[in-house]
Design goal:
The chain has 12 helices and 20 strands. The protein is α/β, with parallel strands linked by helices.
Length: about 500
């Protein structure tokens, strides 16, 4: 006989245990369990203790002693800069419930709350002492004793004739059992930010490490590869995006150096050399948003087209697209992706500076779109300018771009121009910048859409507006037949144009 005790609140209570051998014959289990339950109901805080190999009776755990570090890697990996996977091995104690193997599936449906929910760890394992039984792993933060089961769970256990006695199992955890965030949190200095997220570009994990993470960069890269199926290369940006070609220098932290990749976005395929072009998977939603604004038959001018994330889906809507990018590599892969997605016949591709594209191909096409025959035109003209760092500067290229009298307001091109802002009121800041570039106010004739937060206190936004006729056309005189009061007519046109712009702002 063994007498066990433990403190409970301010008292110490004793419990005599006839036996703690869980492999007692089945005939003794009901009697021993009934006697033990009666005593435990009168003496909370008492626990059984017995060690036998890896499997034995588990001590009851008090709620305020839940071990939040149970599934954390060993503490001695702190400061590791070269990944040693073997150093992450540790043994933890997990509560388990012994059941007959033939009822496991039926019982698991009723124990979803109590069962261990840990990726990579089996919830049901073989009983090392009884081949006819199985051990169900339980959540150590939910289950501390048989009293931890809810009434419905206890009812099911009783119906299936399962002894609710909780036992313990010594589970060995290895590097494979820990999540990337858990590994990095254990390795990096305490209190430092942990990098567990990245931009995925095909097989490449694109990280943007901070200074305090650089000593661990190769370890971080390898962890990203290990913990993310399909990732075979991890890279870190080592400088800001080049405003000319919109690419950046990168360092391969771990894995293969192959930067030729394939991605699928919004059901379209793209191929490119990630080291030579710009691609941001976080703009997928924005690409869809703009695409939805256009209708079949509309015309799109993409001034900074990249490899085609706006071009391809819009061309697929049976729109006519004029796409441009100054980067020769982007131009090459844009042509390739048009062929890949079978939209070559709908897209005209250019390799020009943005200003030259606006004052060349865009001007020529707009002269036709907005000319005398444009009165019967039913489609819209959109201009996308996705170069947030500098796009607003290119708006001045639209000043007095077209000859001839202004067209009616509803035919004027709609611009979607992207910009960054660190201002306390980013929308107002972008409106003022765009208005200054055009020489007009856009306060009441534009809408601003928040695209995403780029960094603390830095937003990416898109401002949408009709290019004012007073900006776009050199000749501001409207030719009117049989009208004796041109100035009055001009006022009505301006008013209609203003109302149209406000409506566009409201709709977008």
């Amino acid at each position: 006989m063994r007498i066990l005790w433990r403190p409970f609140e301010f008292s110490r209570r004793l419990l005599k245990v006839e036996s703690c051998n869980i492999t007692e014959s089945k005939s003794l289990i009901p009697l021993a369990w009934t006697s033990l339950t009666q005593k435990l109901n009168r003496t909370p805080g008492i626990f059984l203790l017995c060690l036998r190999k890896k499997f034995s009776t588990m001590p009851e755990l008090e709620t305020n002693q839940r071990d939040s570090e149970l599934f954390s890697p060993p503490s001695d990996v702190r400061g590791m800069t070269k990944l040693d996977r073997t150093a992450f091995t540790k043994t933890v104690t997990i509560p388990v419930l012994k059941v007959r193997k033939e009822i496991v599936n039926k019982l698991m449906r009723s124990l979803k709350r109590a069962a261990l929910q840990r990726p990579g760890i089996k919830r049901v394992i073989e009983d090392p002492e009884d081949e006819d039984s199985r051990l169900i792993m339980l959540d150590p933060h939910q289950v501390f004793s048989h009293d931890s089961f809810e009434k419905t769970e206890l009812s099911i256990l009783k119906q299936l004739n399962v002894n609710p006695q909780i036992s313990k199992y010594n589970l060995e955890l290895t590097y494979e059992n820990f999540k990337s965030e858990e590994i990095l949190r254990a390795v990096l200095p305490e209190g430092q930010d942990v990098t567990s997220g990245f931009s995925r570009v095909g097989h490449i994990a694109h990280l943007n490490l901070r200074d305090h993470q650089l000593p661990f960069k190769h370890l971080i890269g390898q962890v990203m590869i290990d913990k993310n199926p399909g990732i075979t290369s991890a890279v870190n940006k080592v400088n800001n995006i080049d405003n000319t070609y919109r690419n950046f220098q990168m360092e391969v932290l771990s894995g293969e150096e192959n930067m030729m990749t394939k991605v699928r976005e919004n059901n379209y395929n793209y191929e490119f050399d990630f080291s030579k072009v710009y691609w941001n998977p976080r703009l997928s939603t924005e690409h869809s948003r703009i695409t939805e604004l256009l209708k079949p038959g509309d015309v799109l001018f993409d001034v900074f087209a990249g490899v085609g994330p706006f071009v391809i889906p819009i061309a697929k809507k049976n729109c006519t697209v004029f796409a441009n990018d100054l980067n020769p590599e982007s131009h090459k892969w844009l042509l390739h992706n048009c062929e890949l997605n079978k939209v070559t016949q709908k897209v005209k591709v250019f390799n020009l500076d943005g200003k030259d594209f606006i004052q060349g191909p865009v001007r020529e096409e707009l002269m036709q779109q907005l000319g005398p025959v444009s009165k019967e035109r039913k489609h819209s003209v959109h201009i996308v300018m996705n170069l947030p760092a500098k796009a607003i500067e290119f708006l001045s290229a639209f000043k007095l771009l077209l000859d001839g009298p202004p067209c009616c307001s509803e035919l004027l091109p709609i611009v979607h121009c992207y910009s960054f802002s660190k201002d306390a009121n980013p929308a107002e800041d972008v409106r003022q910048q765009a208005g200054a570039a055009l020489g007009v106010s856009l306060e009441t004739s534009s809408s601003v859409h928040l695209v995403r937060n780029v960094a603390p206190n830095k937003e990416m936004l898109c401002i949408t507006f009709h290019i004012p006729a007073s900006v776009l056309f050199k000749n501001q005189t409207i030719t009117l037949e049989n009208h004796e009061d041109p100035p009055l007519k001009r006022q009505r046109t301006d008013k209609a144009f203003s109302e149209e712009k406000i409506q566009i702002a409201a709709n977008t």
